[in-house]
Automatic annotation (TrEMBL):
The keyword DNA-binding applies. GO terms for biological process: DNA topological change. SASP are bound to spore DNA. They are double-stranded DNA-binding proteins that cause DNA to change to an a-like conformation. They protect the DNA backbone from chemical and enzymatic cleavage and are thus involved in dormant spore's high resistance to UV light. This is Small, acid-soluble spore protein, alpha/be. InterPro entries: SASP_alpha/beta-type (IPR001448), SASP_alpha/beta-type_CS (IPR018126), SASP_sf_alpha/beta (IPR038300). It holds the Pfam family SASP. One of its GO terms (molecular function) is double-stranded DNA binding. Belongs to the alpha/beta-type SASP family. Keywords: DNA-binding. Transmembrane segments: none annotated.
């Protein structure tokens, strides 16, 4: 999935989740597994809404 989303969209999703401060640059190592799961869910919701 990482290759399918632009860096700008990834940052926008992280900001919406309130974890943008944890993903400085391309390092997502500071995110917990729960935050990563929520990140994926949010990305999928965005994709589904864009299709409608």
């Amino acid at each position: 999935m990482a290759k399918l989303l632009s860096d700008a969209l990834k940052y926008e999703l992280a900001a919406e989740m309130g974890v943008a401060h944890k993903i400085q640059g391309r390092d997502y190592g500071e995110l917990t597994s729960r935050e990563c799961g929520n990140f994926v869910k949010l990305a999928l919701l965005r994709a589904e809404r864009a299709r409608l």
